[in-house]
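BUG-245 | component: ligand-complex export | severity: low

The export step for magnesium ion jobs runs without errors, but we want the raw record kept on the ticket for reference. Input record follows.
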Amino acid sequence: MVALVSTVAYLGLEARSVEVQCQIAPGMPGFHLVGLPDKAVGESRQRVHAALAAMGLALPAKRITINLSPADLPKEGSHYDLPIALSLLAAMGVCDAEQMAEFVAVGELALDGRVIPSPGVLLAALHASGADKGLICPAAQGSEARWAGGIPVLAAPNLLALINHLKGTNVLAEPLPGKAAEPERGPDLRQVKGQETAKRALEIAAAGAHNLLMIGPPGAGKSLLASCLPGILPELSPAEALGIM
Ligand SMILES: Nc1ncnc2c1ncn2[C@@H]1O[C@H](COP(=O)(O)OP(=O)(O)OP(=O)(O)O)[C@@H](O)[C@H]1O
Ligand SMILES: [Mg+2]
């Protein structure tokens, strides 16, 4: 049987779909990783082996082949550890292979089985959202992934917690979207003397997202009124914040 897990390859600011395929077949025991892995991806075998051992799981004494497809696309980075481990666990029958089809997985594994951060989670989350899938990512990056919108995010502190969640024995908490840094406060509308009509126009424009054209003699307070606008605008939703990034 071949177990499949989705992940991504980062190409600049773009995330491309990569499928991790794992086959466990009779033959000379060994663990082979193919599909143009770079040095960091190649070393993933040792980390996955150690992380599984930390959970008390030994690799089957069979020929294990992992293929990163498309095989002609170079794979870089440590975020392949988690999808490789999950494809292996699915092939071993520890995880449900069908359940894996609903997620894109990214994350580096520590030797003790912790899932640790790797760069690019937001890109992976946006990619998962476009493909109508959930995301499995490191716990520390759950709030970053949440910015991508309403997709399910499994932010796993370690491999064991993730398996327990997938089996339904111990559910992981949904991460909350991270807070953006408080913007610097400009002048307050209270500082504007008089100009009641202009202030009302400003409030209506802010509430209804309308455009504004200010006309008046020099020194009438147009620049002052305009600089008060950011202070009364509603907070950006995660999708809006990403749009203007
Ligand atoms: N209604 C007001 N209340 C308080 N301060 C005001 C008011 N109108 C103008 N000012 C003050 O007067 C100065 C000039 O105002 P501002 O620069 O906003 O004018 P402006 O309409 O943008 O002029 P310009 O057309 O030359 O750009 C600023 O220091 C501003 O704080
Ligand atoms: Mg001005």
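Assignee comment: Attached the raw record above. The mean pLDDT is 92.
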